[in-house]
Amino acid sequence: MNGFKRVIAVAVGVTVTSAASLLAQTTSGFEPATNIGKESLPAGPLVYTAYAIVWLVLIGYVFMLWRRLDRVEKELREVAARIGSGKRA
Amino acid sequence: MSLLRAGWIIARKDLVVEIRSRELAYTTLFFSVACVLVFAFAFVREGRALEDAAAGILWVSIAFSGTLALGRAFERERQNETLKALLLAPTERPAVYLGKLAGLLLLMMCVELVVVPVVGLLFGAPIFRAPFLLAGLLATGTLGFAGVGTLFAAMLVRAHSRDVLLPILLYPITVPVIIAGVRGTAAIFAADPNFDAALSWLSMLIFFDAVFVTLAFWTFGPVMSE
Amino acid sequence: MKTANRFVPFLMLGAAVMFARAPFMIQDAPLESTMGLIQKIFYFHVPAASATFLAAAVCGIASAMFLWRRNPAADHVAVSAAELAVVFGIIVLATGPLWARKAWGIWWQWDVRLTMTLVMWMVFVAYLLLRRFGGPGSEVLAAAVGLFGMALVPFIYISVNYWRTIHPTTNVVPSLPPEMAAPFWWSMFAFVLLFAAILIVRVRLESNRAALEDAYAALED
């Protein structure tokens, strides 16, 4: 279980840092939005929001799952222990 | 006893009960007309209805009154605990489904016989422009709606929150019926009617019915058994 | 299921690595000629939609198995897949309008495919509501709903090809130029890996919950 948690932590760390670095890169060097969308909406914020939503939803859900799983497995161990001690008694 | 015969007996039972009390018929009928009225107030501007409003209002009224009728029809069974008796009867389960479906279809047909002229009258909709096409749309649409609805209403009979769960479950699944029904009817009612489009929508309704009524028929047995 | 659980760390790591590389690939992909930057939402929007449909199919099949064989594992898979369909559906329904706002000028359009995707999402929300509020025995009822939800999917697919709508047709993908195809299929694969990993974890959660209920019942004896 610890190994699994470690993998998850590494995975989350990798994805978050890469997303952050992408944002840092594109805001400095990216041009086309102003050329194409001059009279209308700038596409940039929409694209960033879209990707942010994807990351947040996925990471949030995985995190929630991880917590629920932890809680249930802990309870399961407790109840199993109680049954075990009950049987012995 | 053959499936159809058993289904017919169950449908006839419902018919007899209904003819004696006329409860469902009256209430559903007047509810559908009230629906038309309420939506008319929503969609009429300066005394004239918005375009395509007639088709939309017609189908919404059918959907809403159909949901009510479904709920009431099975509520009756639940109160008298007759559903269990029906399921224990020595017929195949799907016979119960067919019987209840037939009863409901008959009821909805009576409702539509009133609502369609009402909509025609109140909105100046040309209901006689393509009567067979319109009747076909109504028939297949009602069959699709009632086909899925009968299954869901039956399976929710013993569930909690069944009153609100029925629409929650039924409406998303029958959206293709509503889309096809409204668009097809609107194509007929439009100032510049498009009968080809209406026929395409009719064919989609037939396809929907084939898939979903069959699915409901097969699923009824497993779902209703404990 | 035990063997599947062992795959999870690898699937997760694989998905994470792919997701980490994906933004760079997407950034390097050429701009689309008519839509420009906003089209880049496509690289996540379409794979998320595929994941949603995949989840719907898994839920439908598992529901059918549960309905006819009453296998509890099938029920666990069904409810997990339904939850995933809702989660990935949120991604699709949130990123779609953002794309639409720029590409078509409006947040939402009631064309058949958009509508049907929304409807399918609602079917699986209804599935979860039924399981939560329907009382005892609602697993069987929900299975019927899951089955019907899966049956709706072909209607979504057919609707785009049969009736002309504003939404891009399903034929865009085969004709993608290689510079766009690479990041697209990379993203697609990443989503599928992630979907598989999350599904297995979620199923494990569900079977643990069932085991917990059994354990409590055994405790009372």
Query: Could you report the average pLDDT of chain C, rounded to the nearest whole number?
Result: 83
pLDDT averaged residue by residue of chain B:
87
From the alpha-carbon coordinates, what is the Rg of chain B to the nearest angstrom? 18 Å
Question: Which class do the helix and strand fractions of chain C yield?
Answer: mainly alpha
Could you tell me the number of beta strands of chain C? 0
Shape verdict of chain C: globular
Strand content of chain B: under 5%
Count of domains of chain B: 1
Helix content of chain B: over 70%
What is the H/E string of chain C? HHHHHH
Largest interface: A-C, 47 and 46 residues
Q: How many discrete structural domains of chain C?
A: 1
Q: Outline of chain B, from the CA principal axes?
A: globular
Strand arrangement, largest sheet of chain B?
A: 1-2
Radius of gyration of chain C (Å)? 19 Å
Termini separation of chain B: 23 Å
Tell me what you see in this structure.
The complex is a heterotrimer of chains A (89), B (226) and C (221). Chain A has helices spanning 2-29, 32-36, 43-88. Chain A is mainly α and 89 residues long. Chain A has one domain (2-88). By secondary structure, chain B is mostly helical. Chain B has one domain (3-224). Chain B is 83% helix and 2% strand. Chain B is built from nine helices and two strands, in the order H-H-E-E-H-H-H-H-H-H-H. Chain B has helices at 3-21, 23-43, 53-79, 82-88, 93-123, 131-156, 162-173, 175-189, 195-224, and strands at residues 44-45, 48-49. Chain B has a two-stranded antiparallel ribbon. The longest helix of chain B is centred in the middle third of the chain and has 31 residues, at 93-123. Chain B is globular and about 55 Å long. Chain B starts with a helix and ends with a helix. Chain C has one domain. In chain C, helix 2 (42-69) runs antiparallel to helix 3, helix 3 (72-103) packs antiparallel against helix 6 and helix 4 (112-133) packs antiparallel against helix 5. The mean pLDDT of chain C is 83. The longest helix of chain C has 43 residues, at 178-220. Chains A and C meet through helix 1, helix 2 and helix 3 of A and helix 1, helix 2, helix 3 and helix 6 of C.
